[in-house]
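Batch manifest line 364
LIGAND: guanosine-5'-diphosphate-alpha-D-mannose
JOB: complex structure
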Amino acid sequence: MLSMIIPTYNEVENIPLIIKRIFKVMEANGIEGEVLVVDDDSKDGTAAAARKMAKKYPVRTIVRKKNRGLSPAVIRGFKEAKYDVVGVIDADLSHPPEVIPDMLNPILKGEMDFTLGSRYVEGGGMDNWPLKRQIISGGATMMAYPLHKIKDPMSGYFMVRKSLLKGVHLNPKGYKIALEVLVKCNIKRYKEVPIIFKDRQYGESKLNWKEQVNYLIHLQRLYKHKYTTLYQLFFFLLIGGIGMAPDIALFNLFYHGLHFSSMDYGLIFTGYQIAHIIGFTVAVTQNFFLNKAFTFDAKGNATMQYVKFFIVGFTAYVFRSIMMYVFVDQLDVWATVAQIVVIILAVAINFLGSKFWAFAVKKK
Ligand code: GDD
Ligand code: MN
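JOB STATUS: finished
ARTIFACT:
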């Protein structure tokens, strides 16, 4: 029925206590299951303490030596789990094992795919958290709201039907593995079971400021996953906006500063056009590198991407210039509206051409 994963790092005092409590609950409720301790090579003897428990209970201990971290440890546990439902619980007794049956039953009955030990539903809470920790946790929770409606996405206590994890790539970076599962597996049938979160008695928390920064990066990644096009459009516009600076500055430098304005007669290109082309080329190049780094995840030949990106940008640019020229002498309201429409269309050409052509991802 249930594989319960306990990720551990220096939890030697806690591990025997939590294992005992878990099996007490399982035995009392007729739950067949195992505990998987996934330890990141703690130096305090956590793994040895866990192996000792295996004499009495079905406990397996996995020691990972590389790539320390909570999420990769949990993901490893998912892979090793032998039962249909997998759960995750902290070692430090913050999460009460007594609600295991309440979390497990809705999944076994087929009513839910995911259950969570939650502080933010009626009956849940935490004992004496300092205001500062409450504010940080509350802020972090709010930032995740557009990703999933669950009330306590920061909780690390959850269960999931294992079949749902099949074929889903879970990113091991980021501390909030429950949120990762909720978003990547697109969980719709879930239930929050109230818990009172207890502060740890032994050992110390591993969640430091670095993890807070990681959390922001994790959020960014999940937003990108869930709202890909919106996310790309946002960065595309931002980068395009930034790109206006070199464009305008260089045009002015060459046209006014270096007197290209005096070359407005004769040659194939006028000084005005050359100054614009210089500004445009530098801006497009800057936009290309920024978009490649931040907006689109397109591996592949950068030179070809650049050439295509340039063509797209140039097409939009010519289109805009011609259309603006058409409307330039008219001063009524409709001309302004038309110009706005032209700009929107030019941005659309740019964005769609970049997304679906220049930075297109080849399907396997
Ligand atoms: N294997 C492994 N590797 N385990 C780790 C690592 C690691 O690098 N870092 C932490 N753990 C284990 C701890 O041993 C513990 O069992 C569990 O992960 C949670 O770590 P804590 O250090 O106790 O986290 P916390 O108390 O700050 O955070 C708790 O509250 C959050 C909600 O505010 C955890 O429950 C989080 O999961 C939860 O999101
Ligand atoms: Mn803890």
